[in-house]
Amino acid sequence: MINLEIPKKLQQAQQMAHQVGSGVFRPIARKYDTIEHCPTPQELVQLGMMMKAMRQQGGGGNSEKGEKAEKKNEGVRNGTNLMGILSTTELAWGCCGLMLSVPGVGLGNAAIDAVGTSEQKVKFGKLYCAMAITEPGCGSDSAAVQTTARLDGDEWVLNGEKIFATAGDRGDAVVVWATLDKSLGKAAIKSFVVEKGTPGMEVVRCEDKMGLRVSDTAAIRFSDCRIPKSNILGSPDIATDAEARKKAFGGVMQTFDNTRPMVAAMALGVARGALEITRELLEKEGVKADYAKSLYNSSALQAEIYRMEANLEGARLLTLKAAWMADNGQPNSKEASMCKAKAGRVGNDITLKCVEICGSLGYSEQYLLEKFARDSKIIDIFEGTQQIQQLIVARHLLGKSSSELK
């Protein structure tokens, strides 16, 4: 059963992440938000190894030593997923764009961890891996991928174009979603690891963006790009019957069950950062929270703060639950989508409301409120839009398949 208190063994990692957010990210957040398309900020280079160490430190649910320790607590595990949520929240509180720019662990690494073999985890574990799913004609419907992969001897040959790949330019490798047979739909979708510098892989451009400006978002083209046969994640076989096809694509989609709570944590950090700044500014004007009063006996501003705090706490608990379930081997697809939908919406609502409440101070660049508002919007979109998350949750609740409920 989930315990609502943060485990002591993870509190140190959480505190370290907060120190990075406060001491490293916040002071340079505005600088690198202005300098778009810059190389990896030098201030972040040394953080890469430290972040990997932090993740490994919290791997109680995945390491032999951690497993033995958790047996004393009836087998309950608090591992890498839960630690990732706590760390991501604190780092995003500092600056979400800078957090995504730290060389080390990218979204592609989550895919390798989810479906890669032990040999692949060793081979690609030290690489900074981006994820390339979205295409010019394929956004929220991941099953509509048009990039192709063809087996030619001992190599896969990839052809197609990907857009909006976070860390696609700075990363050491890219995990690419491609189809083995377009006529078979999602059953033929597989993921492949393509290392940077592979002939036939070209970064076409880095996008200009409203938010997360320091984080590179690349468009990548694959033209007869050849990679080793062993670079496919999961089985290369295409399932023949309907049930097996569903399970095969489910394995590919399992990546999202791990990454969507992480994206929700980004929203939590950004929203909490904006809310804290807003409370500080209001207190300077004599508006302080008085929790002894009921909501209806409070001022309009106080009531607004209370509502935002309640929504933020609800999103936080949903996110922690989804991560805890992943650490304990429980299916969490519904919960991952629930926390992503809730946190994404709440994060955007809170940051915009904070800008509104603080007026000219919120809209100006004197504080980070307007930046947090810009950053929050994409968090509600990438890794599956608000609408897609609600659709996934509805399918789970109603027991409907993707073909039955679109």
List its salient traits:
Butyryl-CoA Dehydrogenase, subunit A, domain 2; Butyryl-CoA Dehydrogenase, subunit A, domain 3; 14% strand; 3 domains; 12 helices; globular; alpha+beta; four-stranded mixed sheet; 406 residues; 8 strands
What do you see in this structure?
The chain folds into three domains: 8-105; 128-238, Butyryl-CoA Dehydrogenase, subunit A, domain 2; 243-398, Up-down Bundle (Butyryl-CoA Dehydrogenase, subunit A, domain 3). The radius of gyration is 21 Å and the shape is globular. The strands form two sheets. A four-stranded mixed β-sheet has the order 1-4-5-8, covered by helices on one side. A four-stranded antiparallel β-sheet has the order 2-3-7-6, with no helix packed on it. The chain has helices at residues 8-34, 42-45, 47-57, 64-71, 80-99, 107-115, 118-124, 242-284, 300-327, 333-363, 369-379, 386-398; strands spanning 129-132, 148-152, 155-166, 173-179, 189-195, 201-206, 217-228, 232-233. β2 and β3 (155-166) form a beta hairpin. By secondary structure, the protein is an alpha+beta fold.
